[in-house]
Every structure is written in structure tokens, then in C-alpha cells.
Amino acid sequence: MTNILLVTSSPRGAESLSSRFATEIAEGLKLRLGGNLLTRDLAANPPPYIAQAYINGRAAAPEARTPEQVEAVGLAQQLVDEVKAANVIVLGSGMINFGPSSQLKSWFDHITWPGVTFGYSEAGGPQGLLTGKKVYLVTAAGGVFSEGDYAPFDFQTGYLRHLLGFIGLTDIEIVRVEGTVFGPEAAKAAIAATEAQVRSVLEKAA
User: Fold this and answer.
1) What is the spatial distance between Cα 201 and Cα 116, in angstroms, rounded to a whole number?
2) Global pTM?
């Protein structure tokens, strides 16, 4: 059975293109592959910023944790379990000040857990532990960051790819929607281009 995890993170709500296309991919995959779809909307229910209770709690023995540590570690464990249970992860990210939203960063801060989602090999290098999963990364930006003058300032896509790869999620397909701020015609063309990318993703998955 295929378990699909959809993670959206844009604060734009119904206007979010990253959430729209990520949802279309996740729901399309469910129709084609069957199985279960779990949605986590980080904008509607943002995880808290990590604090001392989480940092100290995850290093402490379970029986030695304070109530605050139990709560903090419990949330992180829930988020990790969702990722572990998924065969397919669809991640939507809208660019905020050249990078991902703080809500999405906080999600990664919770699931990037030493000894749980990554470890270190005998050679001393980091090794991701969440392997064997397919990730569809949907990124949205008003400008064009995939190429041209602004490509060096895309601190969203490369950063997210690095974080995913660090915990073992290296099979990543990127779907971009960009260039929507240059007028109605440009926005229409950008959306049409992304719709074509989504169709291609779903056709390959069928």
C-alpha cells in the first residue's frame, strides 16, 4: 500500500500556488497509486520553534524527561513517524525572502534528529536514515530563480534539497512555479507551464 504525505507550508492560504500544485500532485498520485494520503498544513498548524525542552529532551532517556520535554519530543516523534510511514512525500514551499517559510524550517528542525533520521558512518560523515522514498518538491516564487540573474539568490530550492538529502531523501523531483509577478500574461504562462509539469509527473507515476 502506498502512503503519501503531503506537507504544505505557505501562509498565502487559498492563493498559494505551491500548496495548490503540491495538493494536485498528492491527490493525483493517490488516484493513480491508491493507498492513503495524510496532509500536514504547516501554515494552519505551525510547529513551534525548537527550544531547550526539545534539545535537552531528545538527548535524555524517556523516563528522565520533564513534562515539557515529553511534549516537545512527542511532537517531533509524531512528525518523524509521519515521514517514516510515507512511501511518497509531496512538499510545497513558497519563497519567503529568498528562502522557505519559517514554518517549514521549523518542521525540518523537528525531523532532523541525530540517531533517528541521520547518523554518522564509520568514516565519520553524515548518513541519512530515511531512505527509499520518493519526494516531489514544489517550489513557488514570484520571480524567476531557476536561471538568469536571480538564480544565485534562490536560497529555497537548493537548501531544501540539501536538508532532504541530509536525512536520506535523495530521490527528489522538483516542480517549479515562478515568474508570476510580471503581469497577468506572465502569470498565466507560468501557471500553464507548471500545470504541464504536474501532468508529466502524474503520467510517469501511472
Assistant:
1) 30
2) 0.94
